[in-house]
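Hi everyone,

Forwarding the result from last night's run.
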Amino acid sequence: MTPMPPPLSTRSRSQVPLAAATLCLAVATVAVVPFAAASAEPGPGDGQAVFQRACKSCHEPAVARAPGRADLARKPRADIITALTHGVMAPMAERLSADEIAAVASYLVTSGEATADPGGGKAEMLKGRPSVPLQPLAAEKTCAAHPAIRSGQSDWASQGADGAATRYQPHPELTRSSVQRLKLKWSFSMSGGGQPTVVGDWLFVTNRSGRFYALDARSGCVHWSVDGAVSRTTPMVVKSSFAPSGWASFIGLSSRVVRAYDAQTGKMLWQSEPVDAHPVAVLTGSPVLSGDQLFVPISSLEEPAAINPAYPCCTFSGAVAALDARTGKILWKTKVLPEPNHPTRLNVAGAQMHGPAGGAIWSAPMVDTRRGLVYVGTGDSYTDEPTAGADAIVAMDMKTGAIRWSRQVTAADNFVMGCSAARPGSNCPTPVGPDYDFGATPILFSLPGGEQVLLAGQKSGAVYGLDPDTGRQLWKTQVGQGSALGGVEWGMGADTRRLYVPISDIIQLFQELKASAAAAGSLAPDPREAKPGLYALDPATGRILWSTPAPKAPCTYASGSRPGTSAMPCMRAQSAAPAVIPGVVFSGTMDGWLRAYDSRTGRILWSDSTTARTYDTRNGVKGQPGGSIDGLGPTVAHGMVYVMSGFDGAARVGGNGLNVLLAYSVDGR
């Protein structure tokens, strides 16, 4: 319904000024970037030659957290093309023609362990594994009627569910006892699907294949869909006077623009200018509306871009942009690094290096209207140049963008990808930091006496209680062991009494495979015992009230083996954000299990393995497998629980070419 960004062959090279002509394909929030290209130029139809010239250095064998060629072969051809033309990898593919992109996509999906269906749609056959659909069939069932959107008290209309980002649903239309009768009601396939939002009987969900859906929340039929919206952000849906229907939805695109849609019809209302001019900036965190302002967090792919020795590392700073919600006009933009970026030295390839850089914001902001503040968590530093803005919680004035306070918790966490003893890299800081970003949205918690505490979880496995007025640290609790992939990775949740903290510790879990160095790519082996699971903390003191280790449970991945292993075992890392209702916490694990926990004791009340069966989906995919539950976690609304299975998160474990959105209801009714 809206125009697609121009294909690469029509763009000038000045639009995406990267120094190399090579590419790598991204999954989730990370991507690998190019090494210098060989001089031989393949013909446009020679996909293998394109791969050898432009992709092999990153993907065979895989570097850092990059997918290997076998992983890429399991992805739909359309997803590869989308990623390279107007997705997160477009800057890296800037010098490839449209024909070369099509050729390398075709080569990948017909090589390795996979064979593509030339009809473009039935199934990809994996040796000794269940069939994995290549792409949804053109069998989406359109709803017979499109009733007006009507809100209710059980809506979940934003990523964090409420203004304090607690992920708490106080009116779930589920009870603690009825949770134990949850059964699957319907399923829906999509590539790279994110967390849905629900208003009344309407469900909204984006995905990285570029199709934005409005579905019927009860049945999974399609109200409308919009192409050309490559996004991983959670749609925010609000009543709005400027939308003809009275309802608007806001999403951030990978192309660094924000769009507003009429939520009833799917008609685009406006598209912003790019909120950042940096060629590898990207939007991963969901925009958040407060009043007439839309707050947009800005992240980047510069951390993987630094793998390329010809890349002039590094110049990006994480930032927040405030947009006029009616027009998309940028009102203000504030970078989180207070120090100016400047040239430093030449790397061994002769490229000019810069610093400081980093502080990417890859989670949603949280808006505190009482104090007039916007809180964000920032990522690590990319260079040796000192900065106070990385690995920090930052509070900005919501009207002006001025930084009121910034609390850094880990100094000198200088990290880019591709840095290890085996492959030191040209742009690596010295020493390389542990990569302890804040990837979880801060939570504003109200204590019984009326005081408030700002709760923040870090990939280090530490959780902090901060004074929301000043940023002063009130307490710190080390919950998990922590690693570059969590610790706390995607989010936490809270009700009126407790904070609930999922812990991944997946790098430590790799040790259980007895092949940690190969399994973790360039990440250093970590001999500490993994502590994955769900933890409940006292928000006032940080005291751990209970903990439930992630169970070792049956699981079968349809795809997603890592370099250095064959048929990788399922991983029980608890990385996804939770959802909370009175008496119950829903939390998923990378081995595909969704569980409901008693919020008072941590006892598991109900569980379901999303990998134990395949699904015949509402949009015509037969035998769709489940996979990892990773990322932004479940949504609970109007007596139903929704979760995305097969999401290929930052750990790149248990992902499928297609994800499946699962909808549970009591007794499946």
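DSSP finds eight helices and 39 strands in the chain.

Cheers,
N.
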